[in-house]
Amino acid sequence: MIQKENLFLFHPSLSTINESEVVYIQKNPTRSEALIRAQRKYYQKNKEKLTQNQLEYNKVYNKVVISCACGDKYTRAAKFHHMKSTRHATRMQNIKDGKFAGETKSLSRVNCSCGGHYLYKDRHQHFRTKKHIKYINNIAQEEIKEI
Ligand SMILES: [Zn+2]
Ligand SMILES: [Zn+2]
Predict the structure, then answer these.
(1) Which ligand approaches the C-alpha of residue 131 most closely?
(2) CB of 83 closer than 8 Å to CB of 72
(3) What is the pTM of this model?
(4) 108 CA to middle of ligand 2, Å?
(5) What is the pLDDT along the chain (147 residues), one digit of tens a residue?
């Protein structure tokens, strides 16, 4: 008769880890030949069931949502895709630059030399403001004086 603890060594999805099993593994780092054979035999005999267990386990595992360092969330199944995405890279860069993680160029705040500020996407509106036009005209006049 194979004990549940022994089976855990062979197939993790058979049981969830509990403290007694962890202790068992630490105390018994090597498996005996007889145990390995018994476990192989058990696996062959219950292959289908075990594979099904593994599939069920993967289904749940893949749905686990993880919070990324970039502040975004992804499921385990999408981890590879997320880590390679531009979205992740941009957010990480924003954080590194001390900006809001979700900041995109169009929503970035620009401090204008006229003393005003605007969102990049609204720059054309800003260039038409009295304050900005006055500033530009002043510069133009200064340049004329210098000539
Ligand atoms: Zn990320
Ligand atoms: Zn301006």
Answers:
(1) 2
(2) no
(3) 0.45
(4) 15
(5) 444 444 444 444 444 444 554 445 455 556 788 888 888 888 889 998 888 888 888 888 888 999 999 999 999 899 999 999 999 999 999 999 998 888 888 888 899 999 999 999 999 999 999 999 999 999 888 877 776
